[in-house]
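Field reference: sequence -> structure
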Amino acid sequence: MNRDFKNMTIVFAGFFFMSLFYNTLAPFITTIKMTYNVSNDIIALLPSMIFFASFIMSILGSKIMYILGLKKSLYLGFSFAIISSFIIIVSRSFYLLLIGYFISGFTVGMGTLILSTILSLLSKKYQKFSLANAFVGLGGIISLPIDKFILSRGILFNYTYIIHIVIIGIYFIYAAQLKGIQNDTDKASNGKSPFQLIKTPMILLLAIAILVYEGTEIGTGNWTGRFLENFYGLSKLEVPNVLICFWSLFTIGRFFGDKILEKVGRLKFVIIAVIMSIFGIIIILSGKSIFNALIGFGIMGISMSLIYPAIQGYIIREVGKENVPAASSIITVFNNFGAAFLTYCVGFLDQLVKVNRN
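Structure field:
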């Protein structure tokens, strides 16, 4: 098997298992709240804590990968998932659980940084950024029926993490086949640091675009349900149909997006995608039929799906191979900062809206 192809599959598997791991939390939020008898304000800390830990590790990770190398750094990142899983499994207090989920954020930060850097150091033929992100989405989709099965059988949510320990153990064995990357990283150590690279106006502008995009994606995920209920008057049973339409097209777009980006051009597609998203919003707001919602959110799903891979791929290919680790660090830091900060903002606005309604 071609070495770069094998390395690419290791990256895809890493993104998939990492997504499967951190997306396990969302369906269990209500269960955790009831199990540990905590308030809405306290339970709202969980997602933000994960993103905050991820943000911290994405900064530290840029230093760690030069010290340990990419392969050992990858093992370290996924080791945090095993440590946090053990803590979550044995936790009998909410604050110990909080520590467990905080450590899980280290996996997201380090894992995203190292996997993205490895993918960026492959030959251009195998730099499938859109497909890599599609495996992230696939992990999120598959985590839902697993969590649903656990809840429907009355199994303690903590025990779900036994599955993750086993899966990550298997991934360690597969990742041992990662070869031919270390030397590239040694050469890249002569490149610019993230602080030097971010001073480039174009890189800074695109990094900010990633931050804003992350906020848009989080906002769509968190607010669409309430919007559909309030604006369209849809029932809670009808809302998932629209959400499935959005996320299905979003994931499909990422699976086939690399060929589109190569033909159209990455920055050109970002401009087209923004225009398409605006068109989708106009359709959504132009009527109150469920067909408006399905078509509008469908267009937004397709258009938004490739914005992040397009910006990510453009940055990586423009900076030169010696600056790839620094560029990956910038992308990951701004992505995680956007997630941590904007997740908190969305949660705060949600609580504010509830207070004003009451």
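Note: The first helix runs from residue 3 to 22.
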